[in-house]
Amino acid sequence: MKLAEPRLSYALLGLSFVLVTVSLLMIFIVVPTEATMGIIQRIFYYHVPVAWVAFLAFFVVFVASIMYLWKRDRKWDTIAAASAELGVVFTTLVLITGSIWAKPIWGVWWTWDARLTTSLVLWLIYVAYLLVRSYIAEEEKAARFAAVVGIIGFIDVPIVFLAIFLWGTQHPSPVIFDGGLAPTMLATLLISLAAITSVYFLLLLRRIAIKNTEIELNNIRQLHD
Amino acid sequence: MENIGYLFAVFAIIWIALFAYVMSLIRRQQQLKKEIELLKDSLGR
Q1: What average pLDDT does the structure give for chain A?
Q2: I need a labelling partner for A99 at 20 to 30 A (CA). Which of A186, B3, B6, B29 fits?
Q3: Could you tell me if A9 lies within 8 Å of chain B, comparing CB atoms?
Q4: What is the DSSP letter of A180?
Q5: A93 contacts chain B (CB < 8 A)
Q6: Cα angle vertex A51, ends A47, A208, to 5°?
């Protein structure tokens, strides 16, 4: 698969290294401390990008699942499976970092707030997606079932995003769209966003490469048997 | 500097988790390489 070419992986590795270094320098040295929350607000510069990448990963699952059901081409199933795994990793990090941020600000590790609850549901949906893949032995059937879960499960992504507007919630609304961020803060957020997105694509390529090798190995085994 | 522990916990958890994920990918890749070698041997190269 062209996507898994090593040259692209190396380019993404270099880009991720530069962007992550710059983002950490911006977060810990350049950006001013926020007036209300103090130093803890700096979690924002990774919490938001990690959430954005989780949404992106599930969007990739959604598109790849539709493409798989339409074309029945295995490469789409490989992309969906790889992205779902990464989506679960990033959603886990969103839930953990959000919880650590909540403790000093809200005084609790967890509350059944609409944004938090819908995020937890999102995590459970894609854990179920991964379980569907691992428990169904027949590969074609597993891919088909997983694609259905990947498409239906994506409904929760806009619900998570809109939860703060639809229901009364403790979670703050996005400050990016209403101009509530100082230029340095916005630049730091955008660089962190680029850094985490680059890391996602790097990991996605490597995961796809591994999945392709597994498929090839199984094909050789079947021929051998 | 209040809450600095929480701040460092967040950044440490993110990078440790991503590092652990990368390590799991490397382990899977090494396992596959081994299996390919075994298969090559059983096919008599």
Answers
A1: 91
A2: A186
A3: no
A4: -
A5: yes
A6: 120
ipTM of this complex prediction, to 2 decimal places: 0.87
Element (H, E) at A142: helix A139-153
Q: What is the pLDDT of residues A125-144, one digit of tens each?
A: 999 999 999 999 888 999 99
User: What residue ranges do the domains of chain B occupy?
Assistant: 13-45
Residues of A within 8 A of B6 (CB-CB) are: 40, 43, 100-101, 103-104
Looking at residue A33, what DSSP letter applies? Answer: P
Q: How far apart are CA A75 and CA A67, in angstroms?
A: 10
**Interatomic CA distance for residues A181 and A142, integer angstroms:** 45
Identify the burial level of A169 via C-beta atoms within 10 angstroms of its C-beta, where 0-12 means exposed, 13-18 middle and 19 or more buried: middle
pLDDT tens track for A187-203? 999 999 999 999 999 99
